[in-house]
Amino acid sequence: MQAWQVHENGEPREVMRLAEVERPTPGDGQVLLRVRAANINFPDALLCRGQYQVRPPLPFTPGVEICAETEDGRRVIANPALPYGGFAEYAVADARALLPAPDSLDDAQAAALHIGYQTGWFGLQRRARLEAGETLLVHAAAGGVGSAAVQLGKAAGATVIGVVGGAEKAAAARELGCDVVVDRRAEDVVAAVKEATGGRGADVIYDPVGGEAYAQSAKLVAFEGRIVVVGFASGTIPSPALNHALVKNYAILGLHWGLYNTKNPELVLHCHERLTELAARGAIRPLVSERVPLEGAADAVQRVADGVTTGRLAVVLDKGAAV
């Protein structure tokens, strides 16, 4: 089979190599899956760089989120078991963690439903307890993680403010349903959000960026607001001033979605059922801005790493399987 492999750490475009390799052999409790589509995530770039919290042995195949087909023909969503990731014709995954792919989504969309939307649902519903009528601010609102949070916020009945970088991403954020869009390259984010909220700020702030975005969040969080820390795509991990959280009376909430797979896997299944329902009625639909063939995976991962993409990029292997 064909698979992308990383033999040394570095930038994805430089270290990913497409090779002919043997199909992986499933271990105990694992199944072999034929990959139909693989969603590209920022952690794929971190894996290539050797900067992710999981460091599989070299060589490995990246690709942490797929829509695939089981040997008995079921269409499923899975997180492959590294080192046999999803940028390949076949992958392996934990049999107990397979989730049914929603019929309402094609392969590329289904592949993008899992990590980003589960993170958004747990962050907004489980951690921040977002309520209808509240204001949600989403950093990197046109990106893969942010776009999921925007749709989930709208589905929950919130007013959504999206912060983006550039006119193209601003247009995408509006299409996603943002009530207010702030282009950080052309506007003062703090001033624009304060104006949009009458000086009150946002009840919930969803931050997958860190760095300067977090500094803005601390200035914009409302009384009894909640900042959900999702990741650090900027590359800078902020050091929050806890005295500021005290005097302004807000909460800083960390979210590591992967922990739910071991600490409370039943909640992951419950979340998937809710996401499937939302997708069926059209309330959420992954924004797949580009579908690339397997041969284009390395370049696509590099572009995600460079932050120049909008929505989700998907590697599609089963070209005739769109719904």
Task: Tell me what portion of residues adopts beta-strand conformation.
Answer: 15-25%
- Helix fraction? 25-40%
Order of helices and strands: EHEEHEEEEHHEHEHEHEHEHEHHEHE
Task: Quote the distance from N terminus to C terminus.
Answer: 26 Å
Low-confidence stretches: none
Question: What's the pLDDT, averaged over the residues?
Answer: 95
The structural class is alpha/beta
Q: How many helical stretches?
A: 12
Largest sheet: 7 strands, mixed
**Total DSSP E strands:** 15
Coarse shape: globular
Work out the radius of gyration: 19 Å
Describe the model:
With 323 residues, this protein is α/β, with parallel strands linked by helices. The protein is built from twelve helices and 15 strands. The strands form three sheets. Strands 3, 4, 5, 6, 7, 14 and 15 form a seven-stranded mixed β-sheet that branches. Helix 2 (42-49) crosses helix 12, helix 4 packs across helix 11 and helix 7 (189-196) packs parallel to helix 8 (212-220). The longest helix has 16 residues, at 265-280.
In short:
By secondary structure, the protein is α/β, with parallel strands linked by helices. It has 12 helices and 15 strands. The model has no long low-confidence stretch (mean pLDDT 95).
